[in-house]
Amino acid sequence: MILVKKALSIICKNTKKNLATENINTEKSLGRILAENIRSVVDNPPFNMSAMDGYAVHDNPSTGIYKVVDVTFAGKPTKKRLTKGKAIRVFTGSKLPKGTKAVIIQENIKKLEDKLIFNITKKIKLGNYIRKKGLDFKRNKIIITKSKEINSRDIALLIGANVKHVKVFKKPRITLLASGDELIVSNKKKPEGSIYASSLFMIESLINLSASKCISKKIVKDNKNIIKDELNKATKADVIITTGGVSVGNKDL
Amino acid sequence: MILVKKALSIICKNTKKNLATENINTEKSLGRILAENIRSVVDNPPFNMSAMDGYAVHDNPSTGIYKVVDVTFAGKPTKKRLTKGKAIRVFTGSKLPKGTKAVIIQENIKKLEDKLIFNITKKIKLGNYIRKKGLDFKRNKIIITKSKEINSRDIALLIGANVKHVKVFKKPRITLLASGDELIVSNKKKPEGSIYASSLFMIESLINLSASKCISKKIVKDNKNIIKDELNKATKADVIITTGGVSVGNKDL
To answer: Which class would CATH give A21-43+136-169?
Structure first.
């Protein structure tokens, strides 16, 4: 028996790392292995953004009266510029008006009348509740490095960074050979002494769970020439996985 | 905010558990949810099987001389019956000859000449290295219970038990709606103040990782009637997942 660590090391030493690459849609890249470092195409957030529902103000705000001069929703920014004593209604995710120095969250204000607000409860610090442009990551910054397997969070990151395509390694094509005169598949007549080739299907499903592709699976008789033939025929495979023949018996070829 | 536990409990309380079922090939059942208890079709092992390479003997073997009268490979059983003083060469996985009381592993014998073996090192117990018919599981025994998600090991178990088809729940069809005037997908012109709908694609990929099916994903404007329309249109969905509108702002509909 060989320890898993040792087996992996033997495999890595004897493997040519020359898998081809391909460009695929980011949306379809789940589970694939990156063949390049990925840089963001945009700043994120793409603009100074409100982190909360509230009111954007220009001056170093303390308790005081502000005139609400406009409203801006996420996706619908105002053209107006803030000046001292003015406030603009903002919502989470909305682009902050020019001149914004802080956001007062709505929980901390009291409306006096329709167009007036009164900051009542807390002193506000400059920069409060502003998610600055590029706070998460800046344009051209490496956001995911080569060789990483792309997971669901990475998909969100890539889409948010406006990365439309990624270069990934092609899925290794795997040929699966189970050797054993006793092995059969279920739909065949069951000869005496035979057993179902269960590991063939288990390994196929494990391949399907990884970023690989099982291109062929086959039961092979315990015969040196047949095994040799099948190995030679597997020219389209990047990887051949065999089961059986692991001991020192007369049929462990 | 609602805790995950609480959220799950609300969802479960308000869910009709009436997903349809379907019969699928065992080979294709990875990740699916069983809609029935699964019983084995066969005994496993299907016959008394040798657990090792060695020699099957009939008598309570101790140090002694045996005549090797036949050889049996996995998948190629012998018709011969063992009697006292006789041995038959067996290999791992091979069906044991009639009359087998124990297997002497090859490490513990010394061959005297072509047809003779000499048990030299250890006293052998009756039943040694015999994997009895039905040891793992017996025909008609429940081997996997309803509601289990089928993993790779289960595939091996089902194939080994000669279960050709399994009844599973149909994949829940999920409609994904992300509401927000600011949301866009990458191939559209980017209006000021907009951001990429990254969570839409992340959630889609999470759905694809589960035993579910994303049948539709869409960005919806912050408008009560449009949201209502889209919810009404999602008649083919078993589940609707929405994002956005989670706070108390004027556009959190």
So the answer is: alpha beta
Residue of A nearest to B157 (CA): A198
- Which among A47, A198, A208 is the nearest to B160, CB-wise? A198
- The DSSP letter of residue B151 is -
The side-by-side arrangement of strands in the sheet containing B213-220 is: B213-220, B173-179, B239-243
Q: Which pLDDT does position B252 carry in this prediction?
A: 62
Q: Which residues of B199-223 are buried (b: 16+ CB within 10 A; e: fewer)?
A: bbbbbbbbbeeebbebbebebbebe
* B226-248 tens-digit pLDDT: 888 888 888 888 999 988 766 55
Q: Nearest Cβ partner of A153 from B46, B191, B202?
A: B202
Q: Answer yes or no: do B182 and A94 touch at CB < 8 A.
A: yes
**Percent residues over pLDDT 90 in chain A:** 44
Asked if A202's CB is within 8 angstroms of B155's CB, the reply is yes
Residues of B in contact with A72 (CB under 8 A): 193
- What residues of chain B lie within 8 A of the CB of A208, using their CB? 30
User: What pLDDT score does A140 carry?
Assistant: 96
What CATH number does domain A49-131 carry, 2.30.30.90, 1.20.120.450, 2.170.190.11, 3.40.50.720? Answer: 2.170.190.11
CB contact under 8 A, B75 and A191: yes
pLDDT value, residue A135: 94
* Nearest CB to A249; choose among B53, B75, B200: B53
Nearest residue in A to B72, CA atom: A193
Distance CA B177, CA B216 (A): 8
B202 neighbourhood in chain A, CB within 8 Å = 152-153, 155-156, 159
As a whole number of angstroms, the distance between CA A130 and CA A163 comes to 25
How far is it between the farthest Cα atoms of chain A? 95
Residue type, A241: I
Alpha helices in chain B (DSSP H): 4-13, 152-160, 198-209, 224-233
3-state secondary structure of B171: coil
Where in chain A is CATH 3.40.980.10? 171-243
Low-confidence residues of chain B: pLDDT under 50: none
Under an 8 A CB cutoff, do B195 and A93 touch?
Answer: yes
Architecture of domain B171-243: 3-Layer(aba) Sandwich (3.40)
Instruction: Show the tokens assigned to B127.
Output: 């039943």
Phi, psi of A186 (to 5 degrees): -60, -35
- A188-221 pLDDT, tens digit per residue, is 677 788 888 889 999 999 998 888 999 999 998 8
Closest CA to B222 of A74, A92, A70: A74
Intervals of CATH 3.90.105.10 along chain A: 21-43+136-169
Does ipTM come in above 0.85? Answer: no
